[in-house]
Amino acid sequence: MSLSLYDASVPVFTRGLTVSTLLDKAEAHAAGSGAALSTSVEARLAPDMLTLAGQVQRASDTAKFGAARLTGTQAPSFADDETTFDQLRERCAKTIAYLGTVAPETFAGSETRIVTFGGWANASTLRGDRYLFQFALPTFFDVTTAYDILQHEGVPVGKCDYLGRYEGADA
Amino acid sequence: MSLSLYDASVPVFTRGLTVSTLLDKAEAHAAGSGAALSTSVEARLAPDMLTLAGQVQRASDTAKFGAARLTGTQAPSFADDETTFDQLRERCAKTIAYLGTVAPETFAGSETRIVTFGGWANASTLRGDRYLFQFALPTFFDVTTAYDILQHEGVPVGKCDYLGRYEGADA
Q1: What is the distance between the alpha carbons of residues B70 and B123, in angstroms, rounded to a whole number?
Q2: What's the confidence (pLDDT) of residue A167?
Q3: Which of A17, A99, A171, B36 could form a disulfide with B125 if both were Cys (CB 3.0 to 4.6 A apart)?
Q4: Is any Cβ of chain A less than 8 angstroms from the Cβ of B44?
Q5: 0.80 cut: is pTM over it?
Q6: Could you tell me which residues come within 8 angstroms of residue B157 by beta carbon, excluding any fewer than 6 positions away?
Q7: CA-CA distances (angstroms) from residue A94 to A20, A53, A54, B63, B149?
Q8: Quick check: helix, strand or coil at residue B7?
Q9: Which candidate in B2, B3, B45, B132 is best for mutational testing of the A interface (most A CBs within 10 A)?
Q10: Which has the closest alpha carbon to A75: A61, A91, A55, A56?
Q11: Residue B77 carries which DSSP code?
């Protein structure tokens, strides 16, 4: 079988964005503890780090821009104005829906496509494969930081929440 | 060009394990603040999460076992007894050195190789490509949690420390 950058990106992003199920637990935890839900959405690990909402927004951006840049297409624009759990779940859902429209065959040649992007100090153009493996995937793991924020806040989440469930084994 | 699971694993793991450069900053920060270095190595985000040392050990494990399982070879055994920054850096260096011995051609057929592993609730066998993209890569981003711990401890690290430097652009 042949492997493509599609396999290494769209399904990984889609799975990671099931972080929205973590948000269910965070909301229930905040509600149960009497904390304001808005406080929970704005939780962060350090003053100069993004909030939970910010981590989810950036993970969404990395996913949608990753797919769009690798295929030379346009990603949908989102306003980055989510302030509630419902809105963050909707952001994840919209991103997953967009990823579902990106066909595997549109990744043909993406390994060698030159990708231009901002947000890194010393490089704004990379070959597609390097863009995905050296920038987009490590950056996407803002979803890990979202998980870390919830852990730090005492939300009862575990590794299986983070990984998502795999439906059955292969052998 | 054809893409292989090698491209999606060994270089990603190797780059991620440059988390050892973050350890330099963490050590300097702890020394400057008068904190015990051992306390810094044992920092964690929540009582039921792994310490900084534990995150580095697990990232090392995911990297070495990932490469070994995908190629059907044996990974080196490490004792998990690191308690100092020097030892954690050495752990990263040993892991990177091992990854350097895993030749790209040994990944031939790894996409469809059935991989057996522990540590996940509902699946211990997966096809190689799913093992890498659904388990090993997301799990490897314990390096993100290591970074998050340092941020939470007030260590002055930023995204470029996390990503590592890319040496020059492609276009």
Answers
A1: 16
A2: 52
A3: A171
A4: no
A5: yes
A6: B22, B25, B26, B147, B150, B151
A7: 11, 15, 16, 32, 30
A8: coil
A9: B3
A10: A61
A11: P
Distance to chain A for B134, nearest Cα, Å: 7
B134 touches chain A (CB under 8 A): yes
Sign of CA dihedral A152, B46, A26, B132: positive
Tens-place pLDDT, residues B45-65: 999 999 999 999 999 999 999
Alpha-carbon torsion B132, A14, A159, A132, what sign?
positive
* Closest residue to B46, CB basis, from A12, A151, A168: A151
Q: Mean pLDDT per segment of 10 residues, for chain A of length 171 residues?
A: 89 87 90 87 93 94 96 95 95 96 96 83 79 90 88 86 65 55
Enumerate the β-bridge partners of residue B115. Answer: B126
Mutate to test the interface with B, among A2, A6, A7 (most CBs of B within 10 A): A7
Helix A142-152 to helix A52-71 angle, to the nearest 10 degrees? 170
Is B8 in contact with A4 (Cβ distance < 8 A)? no
A-chain residues within 8 Å CB-CB of B165? 121-122
pLDDT value at B171 more than 70: no
What tokens does B143 get?
């390096």
Could you list the beta-strand ranges (E) of chain A.
114-116, 125-127
